[in-house]
Amino acid sequence: MTPNGLFECKLAVAAGSAAPPPPTAACYAALKHADLPCFCTFKNNIYLPLFGIDSTRAMQLPTKCDPNQIAHC
Predict the structure, then answer these.
(1) Read out DSSP for 18-71?
(2) Is residue 49 situated within a structural domain?
(3) pTM for this one?
(4) Strand, helix or coil for residue 1
(5) Of 21, 26, 30, 56, which residue is most buried, by most CB within 10 angstroms?
(6) 51: CB partners within 8 A, 6+ apart
(7) Cα(31)–Cα(61) distance, rounded to whole angstroms?
(8) 31 touches 1 (CB < 8 A)
(9) Cα–Cα nearest to 24, from 44, 4, 45, 42
(10) Is residue 73 part of a domain?
(11) What pLDDT digit, counting tens, does each position of 45-65 carry?
(12) If phi over 0 gives left and psi between -120 and 50 gives alpha, with beta otherwise, what is residue 52?
């Protein structure tokens, strides 16, 4: 996933918001090209909150975009 792709998904995984918006079409497109094993390395990453990212929401993102695209972390 490119940095632009990550940016497209940021609102959907924002920390602190009660109900983040659903992933955008651009986020869906970016996730289709994501390397899910690499994506899993960010599970429980201590640095994600520094960027305003909720790691639990981030790990749910692939399934929200495509129910068949499960990140087995």
Answers:
(1) SSPPPPPHHHHHHHTT--HHHHHTTTT-TTGGGGTB-HHHHHHHHHHH-TT---
(2) yes
(3) 0.76
(4) coil
(5) 30
(6) none
(7) 8
(8) yes
(9) 4
(10) no
(11) 888 888 888 988 888 888 877
(12) left
**Under DSSP, is residue 17 helix (H, G, I), strand (E, B) or coil?**
coil
Cβ pair 53, 16 in contact under 8 A:
no
Reduce the DSSP state of residue 72 to 3 states and report it: coil
Q: At residue 31, what is the residue type?
A: L
Query: pLDDT tier at 24 (50, 70, 90 boundaries)?
Result: very high
Residue 56 bridge partners (DSSP): none
Amino acid at 56: T
Question: Which of 29, 32, 56 has the alpha carbon at shortest distance from 42?
Answer: 56
